[in-house]
Amino acid sequence: VDSLVRGGIDRDYEVTLPAEQGEAVTLSVSASVMRGPSKEPLAIVCVARDVTERKLAEQEIQRHREREAALHEINLATTSTLELHTVLDMLLQKIEHLFPYSIAITVRLFHGVTKQLEPIASRNLDDEKWKSEEWEAVRAFTSQVFHTQKMLLIADIQSDPRTSNPPFFRRHGLVSYLGVPLIAKSETLGVLSFYTKQGRSFSNEEMDFLSTLASQAAMAIQNSQLYEQTKRQAVELERANRVKDEFLSVMSHELRTPLNLVMGYTEMIKDRMLGEINPEQDRILGKLLGRARDLLFMISGILEATNIGSKTATVKSTEFDLSDFLNELKLAYELPLGNDLTLDWEIPSDLPVMKTDREKLRHILQNLINNALKFTNDGQILVATRYLAAIKMVEFKVSDTGIGIPNEALPFIFEMFHQVDSSETRNYGGVGLGLYIAKKFTELLGGKVEAESQIGRGSTFTVALPLIHVEERGT
Prior knowledge:
43% of the residues lie in helices and 24% in strands. By secondary structure, it is of the alpha+beta class. It has a 5-stranded antiparallel β-sheet with strand order 5-4-8-7-6, with helices on both faces. Strand 2 (25-35) and strand 3 (41-50) form a beta hairpin. The radius of gyration is 42 Å and the shape is elongated.
């Protein structure tokens, strides 16, 4: 009053009056001084208005904004990483800031193998003790929340008849309990629990907020679990692939040794180094050698595919005369093909010197030619080469007049172990590695391979490679 009289200035202020029952009342007060002719103070006039509802509304709006901001912060924090324990640590840290009256916060997640709610993360607790059997006293409450998928509030956990071990909670000074289910996409993942040292009654507004927060947390936890599962599967798949590659590599080496021995002795007999043989024996030995070469080619293909899969295949570039290389390759196919089938070569005399991996180029062309021979009974197989000087690329085409490939199968013919006809009654042999190796080796040499085909009219495979391979790399 004195300051009001001395200052001579009207004042507006708010005052909150405690109430014995119900909520406190907030008043907005306007005070002014009435003065006489000589400016002497005659009276003080005060006007008070009850603004309790307005203040409560303002506080509600402020709390709503704070919680919306908190949810946004939690969302940013928990989606910034997919590591489960990092997500949970961030989550509990944010929740602790929002609810400082919570003495402890815990997260239990359902384990698919043990079928139990396993202790995963906690705040304001000795983590080792919390995960011990002593804390089994709370399992009944968390299990109830998990199975009913409903929040559970216990005002006094020490005296509640459902409590199985009241001395435990008294020893730790825990009074109130709130359990919130963690549900994502209709799947209950676990339970988020709050323990307070003083009795605490959560309002409906707080319960709704916690339910929203738990849903958001559950989504982050589920994403983290899926990420962890994907990582485990990737490790298991890598281990399985490594075992497979090691097995195929060992088997390929082990199979080639006795097969080479069989082929060596067969050739000795066929060449009459061990005595004379009759024409029928010579014919049968020729077939035997042919089948043995096919088997050796398949075994070598498995070894090459294994090297590709394990990323140990490397490029060894050397310079060589391309025309000489193709003529050498042509000599390997000067065998009787049958009266109705011819294998023709187009080898220009002015082909340049090429720098690439000679052995891999040979494998590429052999696989394409052998593939054409396998599926062409009559007509022509043409191996054509040309140099595209403008772009410094060499193009190899292997065309045939064979059975052709269905359009729906074309996108898959370069896949490992792929067979257009994979039935047990199919007419053509092989393990489906030739085209796969041809494509991988072509890419390894910096080129590309394409296929065109029509059913009943044949197929054409085109390989384009740079004249000079400059990058040493693995696949």
